[in-house]
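Case study 2.
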Amino acid sequence: MAHKKEERKEDCYGDEVRDHILEFADNGGYEAIPEDERETWFTRFKFWGLFHQRDGQESYFMMRLTNASGILEPDQLRTIGEVAREYAKGPVANPEFGNGWIDLTTRQSVQLHWLKLEDIPEIWEQLEAAGVHSRSAGGDTMRNISGCPLHGKAEEFVEAGPLLERFEEELRTDDALANMPRKFNISASGCTVGCAQDSLNDIGFEPATKEIGGEEVRGFNVRIGGGLGGRQPRAATPLDVFVRPENAYEVGRGFVELYHDYGDRQNRSKNRARFFAEDWGMEKIRDTLQAEYVDFEMHTAGEDFREEYTYNAGRPVEDGQHDHVGVGDQKDGGNYVGLSVPVGRLPAEDAIELADLADEYGSGEVRLTRRQNPVIVDVADEDLAALLAEPLLETYPAEPSPFERGAMACTGTEFCSIALTETKARMARMLRWFNENVELPDDVGKIKMHYSGCTADCGQAMTADIGLQGMRARKNGEMVEAFDIGVGGGVGEDPSFIDWVQQRVPADEAPGAIRNLLEAYAAHRVDGQSFREWVDATAEEQLVEFCEPEETDFEAPYMADAKQSWYPFAESESAAAAGEGSAVPSDD
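Prediction:
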């Protein structure tokens, strides 16, 4: 028997949903949706990137935008910022971030909050006039295509841009494939840094080389079945397939169609592509692709470059690029400048100013990374010093502290109905506290600290040096917000997921626990040893002992329930919080 969400999608999904959204908007917005049909329509709205915000925020929506591999062409960021300034304002200002801002996501795109349904037609008109859209940004469909944000700008072993463009323009626009069993993530990268994080995607294309007919051919190896969430992370498995660049699209489309046709539509907690890949196995998937979906003879895997991967790979800074923050060389002789936006939240005025700087010092194009940061591209040597001296770069520096550089955070209870804890404001305050209270060795340029508000792990805590996942705990007889703390995650040649060293640590004791752990790292590490390397070399019982919870002078906001702390109309707790930390599905 199909899941109830399949029934909701059966009658109306994909492109036809847009007309209904416009009709509701023209007839009064939220109130025009029949009350007994709202849950059904909210499921359908997600295909167009429109998400109803959580209980207590009735009539407000989040919109997720889509822009393949993080490219925002000239004037697009400015338009997004102007839309946020005009429409993305709630009835109460966030005490940390104010009112009217954008969130940068871990799939290289943007989210807008506090939108009213009756404003959506005008918002779409403004965004789409600049070439920005929200189609296929949510729901059970192919999400934003991720890739190296600097493809076409930095050096690549194999050019990935044409493949990314075909995925965006041909595959994601195919309404016949709009209704997938679950959300589906695709990545492709031609660089040898590993920044597309192929191991975390449902299908990932990584640069590789293979001898075919006596000739060394450049192309892609294929991996499938990667993903996070539900305390059941999987690193993508090699499919043992090498494809030439001109054949890569057909293989990607073939696996999308295979999962569309054979994927489970009954058990949503076990029907992501990673479970499908595990159930079928690589041999059966490969044979079925060859027999039913691919018209050319596939080659076995070639030689990859995973040993060179440095992006969030837990290696020392001197080994190479571990993010896209800072100044870097473009292959045309220009420069890119990556800025650090802690927890990915950017006020609308700052987004507009950033667009102005991209126009003044670069080509106007801005690239977004998988670490919630923007990159200004095409900066000439003679303009670098002036750009780096701009006042905006004091707030979003190209040379941030190790804590700010490594920080990521999901939406949390501020807007998410399944989150257990507030995330972004708390993480912003913790970063300031760590900057003032924790001293790291001079050669430690980053500590990757990721914070997810629940086990769905949208903040990618599983792949961090220090991963935080929101939980609930009792302290002094009161239920409070808490973290599970894990260490030693990262991607790279051999992806690894964090090991939990403390569980249900009250939010006011967690910064002390992390400081104790980092002080132990500074005291006991070998010179040049990265945090992940130190964790790998340290016994688990020692790590548990080092990470001792401790109350400090850190003022923990929203200890009791973030949903009731500063939104006076939000009186109900989340479904996840009511379950006191039980695992929840990632259904974003």
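DSSP finds 18 helices and 21 strands in the chain.
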